[in-house]
Amino acid sequence: xxxxxxxxxxxxxxxxxxxxxxxxPTISRAEAEETDWAxxxxxxxxxxxxxxxIAAATERxxxxxxxxxxxxxxxxxxxxPAILMAHQDVVDxxxxxxxxxxxxxxxxxxxEGEDVIWGRGTIDDKGSLVALLEAADALAATGFRPRRDVWxxxxxxxxxxxxxxxxxxxxxxxxxxxxxxVLDEGGAIVxxxxxxxxxxxxxxxxxxxxxxxxxxxxxGQGGHSSAxxxxxxxxxxxxxxxxxxxxxxxAKLTPAMRGMFRAxxxxxxxxxxxxxRHVGLTGPLxxxxxxxxxxxxxxxxxxxxxxxxxxGHAHNAVxxxxxxxxxxxxxxxxxxxxxxxxxxxxxxxxAVEIELESGxxxxxxxxxxGTGWDLLVATLADVVPDVTPxxxxxxxxxxxRAFTGLTDAIYRFAPFEMSxxxxxxxxxVDERIRVGSWLAGxxxxxxxxxxx
Length: 452
Prior knowledge:
This protein is α+β, with helices and mostly antiparallel strands and 452 residues long. It has helices at residues 11-22, 37-50, 52-57, 126-141, 163-174, 233-246, 255-265, 271-277, 279-290, 294-300, 336-347, 371-383, 420-424, 435-450; strands spanning 59-63, 67-72, 82-87, 107-111, 114-118, 150-155, 181-191, 200-208, 210-219, 223-224, 303-311, 317-318, 321-330, 353-360, 387-394, 410-418, 432-434. Strands 1, 2, 3, 6, 7, 8, 15 and 16 form an eight-stranded mixed sheet that branches. A four-stranded antiparallel sheet has the order 11-13-9-14. β7 (181-191) and β8 (200-208) form a beta hairpin. α1 crosses α4 (126-141), α7 runs antiparallel to α8 (271-277) and α12 crosses α14 (435-450).
């Protein structure tokens, strides 16, 4: 049975609003001038039309031209505010013909026996943004007012540069806003991620990996393709990329991952949960087990992968120059500098220049106690009592990293149940969310906001 998140609100009406916002293609581009900013304007206008109660209850402004910053004034100015985040933008859907259902049609279909909404942004991250607005609007319509100030930050370029969230964090910092906690996208309610744990885990990110793009460059001898040099720039660059790929970073368990195992160990019985509970002894075994899943690799290693490559200007000319981008996600305890050093050692070729193009360091670890954590855990305990909260290290980047320095309590969690297959569709074709999961997430957000 699909849950009603509020007796006064129709599930179908909420889904219609969600679909309407999903159909607006708010794709952010690395080159800002290539972004269709008119789509973002349409999105913001549709948000205001769809959620009049929370729009009327908040003070609203645009930061960095496109990021939405809303303040919902609280009753007690002595209480530190809460910041709830999501982002408006989505990644490019890629080859549209590869999608089972159109990427921006937001089709509601039956898939494997369940009611599903299909399309770019359903999970990353309009699912969270619209669910937050549904919850807040339903509460505001009743006259509810939170005890503390609640700030909504809806960034516009999380998928590219994160400048909107950074500008919002800087603006709030300049105004003396020091939040009690920040909640952004990140983990989810998962089933079957760890063998031996049959119950559902709420994976709450208490840190996130750093990220850096490194540019590899080779300058060599060019010429006519009929008389190629023995070692072209493209060939030399390719060899360096292959050597980097053959030398993975060492695997290790961060404090956040150890916390996840201990929490998961308490949610099951038998030999495997015992291993999780005693992670201090069994860490090496658990590290090896995690290498069987891409997510497990991401949680235990700094990852590196070539994502872009350039070279050549004509079919019959050997290029003098070839370049590539290696994207890295940096594990807590490592740094941009140490990552660069390891890449240079793995490439093992002084002719291959490697330099930092852009990046940020791993985030500090948030506490698993205190007001923010306790509110989130208590909300989950009341709304979904069969779910076990588990801290973990977020592998992807979020806009929340911009708020480091304003508070230690930054959490990354979207309150939707997601399968392995659904998580694998993030940034890929056929992104989708189950209707029941999305509606249940609205209920979790509503209960959380009602406690603020």
